[in-house]
Hints:
By secondary structure, the chain is an all-beta fold. The chain has strands at 17-20, 28-29, 43-44, 52-54, 61-64.
Amino acid sequence: MSQTQSSTEIQSNAGNCYEVSHADLPLHCPMDGMSLWNSHPKVYLPIEKTGKAKCPYCGADYTLKD
């Protein structure tokens, strides 16, 4: 299941692994729909080249699905 920016609340750091799509770019953590959107400063993550990114604050792993 893709975690997208929508009206659906995203559990922040619940599984610590998130699949995102190109619609979520530019990727930042925490994402807008996360319940703890202010859990740490917003940081933009460069995921486009490798398809993977890790948040330096909370350790959440992101994978670009499409």
